[in-house]
From TrEMBL:
Residues 28-162, 196-330 form the Spore coat protein U/FanG domain. Keywords: Capsid protein, Signal, Virion. This is Spore coat protein U-like protein. InterPro entries: Spore_coat_component, Spore_coat_U/FanG. It holds the Pfam family SCPU. Residues 1-30 form the signal peptide. It comes from Eoetvoesiella caeni. It comes from the Bacteria.
């Protein structure tokens, strides 16, 4: 009897002890979990010869799950150029060609977007998320600002420049729970992270411009037109992109006073002086306006001077006065 009673008391006390111990068990706080990604950064068509800058924006979306009352620090990092390791000069690619651009944290494009642990002060963007009562998941967005500077890149060939050559631009979200927002720092370490990548693209437009054209002046003739009279003029063009390897062709029309393909200058009395324009100093290759007689060139984004060689052949003098003509210049690319 006594043994059974003592056993019953022992079991009862043990059960009570177990209940008391259970009263002090608290559920473990779940560590935060975060992720993020960016939409495509599309610069559209870029006219490098126009100068200036081309801007674009994309949206970075991020979200975290955590317990109510948790303060989470997120640090959004954009990688350096994978080939150069630089934050100051990131590149889009088209074949072996590279176009410089960069990411910024502000609309004024004054602060380069860096990464956790980056040298040179190129910092990531810190974000604080505070979970209130009943909140277990929060999400938000922030803007990413991109810019292409035309300066120094006018010689790039036309084409699509993008991040395909590196399989997308690297982005990383580092995160951790912190005691409060004032103690949050991306430099303190101890973070978990999630990596992703996104696409950026710019299309370089084939473009040429005719910068200037000087006057071809055959001078004053005090005699009959019994011998060749030669002169020259200069056409200055600037091109990038075009018919393969930055190619272009410059054509010259027959002039406003032509008879068929014969170029002529017209005088005050209605008379004409025949002349011709050539692509070479020997005056053997006529400079025309079709594919075969236009002058080909290769653009490098810098002004290029093209010489037009002129000649007035021997002919009967049509009278005295000033003889002129106007020729249309056409550039194809």
């Amino acid at each position: 009897m006594h043994a059974i009673k003592k056993l019953a008391i022992f079991l009862h006390c043990g059960f009570l002890a177990l209940l008391l111990a259970g009263a002090f068990i608290r559920p473990a706080t779940a560590a935060p979990s975060c992720d993020g990604h960016s939409s495509n950064l599309m610069f559209g068509t870029v006219n490098l010869l126009a100068g200036g800058v081309t801007d674009a924006t994309s949206t970075i979306s991020y979200g975290c799950s955590a317990d109510p009352g948790t303060v989470v620090l997120l640090c959004v990092s954009l990688g350096a150029d994978p080939n150069t390791g630089l934050y100051t000069l990131r590149n889009l690619g088209s074949g072996s060609n590279r176009m410089a651009f960069n990411f910024y944290t502000d609309a004024a494009r004054s602060t380069i977007w860096g990464a956790v642990g980056a040298a040179g002060g190129y910092a990531p963007v810190p974000i604080i998320m505070t979970f209130g009562s009943g909140e277990y998941y929060k999400s938000a967005t922030t803007l990413l600002y991109g810019r292409i500077q035309s300066a120094g890149q006018t010689g790039l060939p036309s084409g699509t420049y993008d991040t395909g050559y590196i399989s997308g631009w690297p982005m990383k979200i580092d995160y951790k729970a912190v005691a409060n927002s004032t103690s949050a720092s991306c430099a303190n370490g101890g973070m978990s992270n999630k990596s992703s990548s996104f696409y950026a693209q710019a299309v370089v437009k084939s473009d040429c411009r005719i910068d200037s054209a000087s006057t071809m002046d055959f001078g004053t003739v005090f005699q009959t037109l019994s011998q060749n009279i030669d002169s020259a003029a200069t056409i200055t063009v600037t091109c990038n992109g075009g018919m393969g390897a930055n190619g272009y062709k410059v054509g010259l029309g027959n002039g406003t006073n032509a008879s068929g393909t014969q170029r002529r200058m017209k005088g005050p009395g209605g008379g004409y002086v025949n002349y011709e324009l050539y692509r070479d100093a020997q005056r053997s290759s006529r400079w025309g306006n079709d594919y075969n007689t236009s002058l080909p060139g290769v653009g490098n984004g810098l002004p290029q001077a093209l010489t037009v060689y002129g000649r007035v052949p021997p002919q009967s003098a049509p009278g005295i006065g000033l003889f002129t003509d106007t020729v249309v210049i056409t550039i194809s690319y």
